[in-house]
Amino acid sequence: MVGYLLQHENVWDYPRPPRVEPVHARIEVEADGHLVAACDQALRVLETSHPPTVYLPWEAFPEGLLVPSSTRSTWCEFKGRASYLDIVLPGTRRTAAGWTYAAPVAPYEALARHVAIYPSRVDACRIDGVPVQAQAGDFYGGWITPNIEGPFKGGPGTMGW
Fold first, then answer.
1. Secondary structure, 3-state, 98-160
2. How far apart are the first and last CA of the chain?
3. Cα 108-25-130 angle, rounded to 5 deg
4. Contacts of 7 (CB under 8 A, 6+ apart)
């Protein structure tokens, strides 16, 4: 996807069931003064009413930074079982900062060996240098950039939409 931040998108135009597509942009994640992930090719999941959820390849994270979380797993009706991951840095642990699908179901197999990060659980996420705003709530983990418009599901009173 060329010019990711130039393309205006409304989340109500996204499909259901969700679609997975590549993101050809520089993705960066920071926590506690450390660049904890960076890559130039990620994936995003688009689903009606949600800002895109960005999935970075495992290789974007330094070895040993991500560890299984004690947080229970969850089930997505489309993608399968999600397992949560903590980010461990010297002197700190970001509990359930992200999640992964070890064995995503068809047609979401491309998400295997990828990690989604909650922007609200790290200090910063950026796409091509532009700061990401976290989606409200503690469920979806969408990445809001200036080119994405809502209203977005996730905040108080929106779960029943």
1. EEECCCCCCCCHHHCCEEEECHHHCCEEEECCEECEECCCCCCCCEECCCEECCCCCCCCCCC
2. 29
3. 115
4. 1, 147
Is pTM beyond 0.90? Reply is: yes
The pLDDT confidence band at residue 1, using thresholds 50, 70 and 90, is very low
Residues 142 and 9: beta-carbon distance below 8 Å: no
Domains and CATH numbers, the chain: 7-143 (2.170.150.40)
Q: Cβ(80)–Cβ(73) under 8 Å?
A: no
**CB < 8 Å & 24+ apart, contacts of 77-83:** 78/17, 78/18, 78/105, 78/108, 79/18, 79/45, 79/104, 79/105, 79/108, 79/111, 80/104, 80/105, 80/108
| pLDDT tens sequence across 42-83 | 999 999 999 999 999 999 999 999 999 998 899 999 999 999
**Strand 9-10, strand 148-149: pairing:** parallel
Neighbouring residues of 160: CB distance < 8 A, sequence distance ≥ 6: none
